Amino acid sequence: MHGERRAYLEAIGIDLWVPRAAPAAQPAAQLPVEPAGKAVEAAGRWEALRAEVLKCTRCPLHLTRTQGVFGVGPKRSDWLVIGEAPGAEEDRRGEPFVGAAGQLLDAMLRAIGLDRATNVYIANVLKSRPPGNRDPKPEEVAACLPYLVRQIELLKPKIMLAVGRIAAQNLLATDVPLGRLRGRVHHFGELNTPLVVTYHPAYLLRTPADKRKAWEDLKFARNLYHQLVPGK
User: Fold this and answer.
1) Which candidate, 69, 61, 71, 83, places its Cα nearest to that of 166?
2) What's the pTM?
3) Among residues 225, 218, 181, which one has the least CA distance to residue 106?
4) Residue 189 has pLDDT above 50, yes or no
C-alpha cells in the first residue's frame, strides 16, 4: 500500500483497512476547461448563492448562529460530501467539518484519494447551526434544502456521499435506518445523482468499531465512481 494512504488509515485508527491487492495510484484526472464566459457566469452564480445563504433569514436559526456555513471545495468537483449541519467550531469558522469530526472525515476521504482543497466539495443540509447541536427540525430542513439543491445544480457532481443518519434521511426523504441505507446506490434530485450513505465521522469517534464498516462504504463509493467515470 502507498505510504501516504497507510498513514491516512492509521490516522483514522484502523490498521487493517488494507486491500490485498491495492490498485496502483491513478494520476489526477484533468477536468475539461470551460469557456471563459461560462466560467465567469458560473462564478457569479456561486457568489450570489453564497451571499444569499450568509444573509438568509428563512428560519429562526439565523437568530442564534454566528454565521452561515456555505460549503468548501473546488466548484468543479466530481464528488460532493453532505453532512447534517454546522457544529460549534464550524459556526465559529464558517467552514463545514473543521473540528475533530472534520479531521476524521478528511482522513477518510484521503484514504480514497480525495481532498477538500483539490477534488471534493463539502456542504451540509443546514447552513446554520442548531442550538446545542440538536437534530434539525423539519421546517428548518424545508427552508434550507433549496440552497443545497442549487449548489448541486451548479456543481453537477458525479457522485454524492451522505454522512450520517440525518443527512441521509433528509436527502432521501425517508425514515429508514442508516444501517439499511448503506451498501446501496440511491439517487437524488432532478439530476438523478448517484448517492451513497455512510456513518457520520462524529459517530465513528464515539463508536470506533464501526470504522471498518465505514471503510467498506468508502470503497463501495469509490468503485461506483470508477464505474460512472471510467479512467478516473
Assistant:
1) 83
2) 0.86
3) 218
4) yes
Give the residue carrying C-alpha cell 498513514: 7
Can you name the residues that pair with 161 across neighbouring β-strands? Answer: 81, 196
Q: Which CATH superfamily is domain 3-11+36-228 in?
A: Uracil-DNA glycosylase-like domain (3.40.470.10)
- CA gap 73, 49 in Å, rounded: 15
* Geometric angle at alpha carbon 173, from 146 and 139, rounded to 5°: 55
C-alpha span between 133 and 86 (Å, rounded): 8
What is the C-alpha to C-alpha distance for residues 41 and 37, in angstroms, rounded to an integer? Answer: 6
pLDDT tens digits, one per residue of 29-66: 455 556 677 888 889 999 999 999 999 999 999 999 99
Report the alpha-carbon distance of residue 110 to residue 119 in Å, rounded: 10
61 phi/psi in degrees, rounded to 5: -60, -20
Largest CA distance in the chain: 52
At 192, list the grid cell: 438523478
Which three cell numbers, joined as nine digits, stand for 150? 442549487
Angstrom distance (rounded) from CA 217 to CA 183: 6
Count other Cβ atoms within 10 Å, centred on residue 1. Answer: 11
Query: Residue 69: CB partners within 8 Å, gap ≥ 6?
Result: 86, 90, 91, 94, 95, 96, 124, 127, 128, 129
